[in-house]
Design a protein that fits this description.
Layout (H helix, E strand, L loop, with lengths): L8 H14 L4 H9 L7 H10 L5 H7 L5 H20 L4 H12 L1 H6 L4 H19 L6 H13 L35
């Protein structure tokens, strides 16, 4: 898929996490992160939060939820993690922030257990590489990186998903005569 990078679930969730680190009062990105393996909440948990106050935004609900149960403890723990990452985002660049989040949450390792996990892990590594490329320019910081990604998506310029096959893989390659110029193959059909 030449145009599937920003539609990949692991990238959508990671970008949602970066968005809430920049501004936590965004219901959709916050809900996406909470329902992901990073947050570990269920749909029932979010419904319980919503029923506690139908007019408040999700961040306020998570912050003020005060039932004496396990959900309250998980809300406090989640907000502590988000606050720690938010503080870290002011001290380090986006690549370092992403690396730390992947390590702390096990998000990168989570995809290693999935059937198509190699591509997801490659996509997550590629996001770190792209953040490093972005920060090698004159622009730096989480907010600017998020704006950069938003601008790419608004212009409908998706990026190719990460490739996990190398040049020396034992696979069949289909290409035009022009694409094969200068290459030598033992068998050609």
């Amino acid at each position: 898929d030449d145009k599937g990078y920003f539609r990949a679930p692991e990238i959508l969730t990671t970008l949602s996490l970066l968005s809430i680190l920049d501004n936590a009062r965004q219901d959709i990105p916050l809900a996406a992160v909470m329902l992901s393996p990073i947050g570990g909440f269920s749909e029932q948990d979010l419904a319980t939060l919503r029923l506690s106050d139908k007019n408040a935004d999700l961040y306020t609900l998570v912050k003020n939820f005060s039932a004496d149960d396990e959900l309250s403890a998980r809300c406090r723990e989640f907000l502590d993690k988000v606050q720690n990452w938010r503080e870290l985002s002011r001290q380090v660049g986006v690549p370092e922030l992403l690396s730390k989040i992947y390590r702390e949450t096990g998000y990168y390792d989570y995809f290693g257990t999935k059937i198509d996990g190699r591509v997801a892990q490659a996509n997550l590594r590629m996001l770190i590489d792209r953040a490093a490329e972005f920060e090698s320019t004159a622009f730096r910081g989480l907010s600017r990186f998020i704006q950069f990604i938003k601008k790419i998506r608004e212009l409908e310029n998706d990026l190719a998903a990460a490739r996990t096959l190398g040049e020396n893989e034992d696979v069949v390659r289909v290409m035009t005569i022009h694409k094969s110029k200068g290459l030598e193959f033992p068998v050609v059909f």
